[in-house]
User: What shape does this take?
Amino acid sequence: MMGDTGPCGPCTEIFYDLPGDPGGPPGSPEEDGDHYIEIWNNVFMQFNRDEAGVMRSYPKPSVDTGMGLERITAVLRHVHSNCEIDLFVALLAAAKSAVDAAEAGDCESRRR
Assistant: This one.
């Protein structure tokens, strides 16, 4: 479920294993870290949960799937964050240059 009410059902997540990085399998006490990164999820939307918590079956269940191109790109580039892929690094650098050129202040000091 994404909230207390609305579409819901069984789900699955697919993770990529980054050997050598700290962290344990998702759901384990050691899950914090970058060892596993989620690259895809599927929600099999079968029910609608109302305000009373009652789940009613959808007449036509569906699948909500999310596999971002940027997530796969991060895996292929051997980085841990979408913001570290080459395309986003270039876009962020261009945005910083534009802000600096407009004399709007130092982007680096504002991030902290």
The CA atoms of residues 7 and 48 lie 4 Å apart. The first strand starts at residue 6 and ends at 8. The radius of gyration is 20 Å.
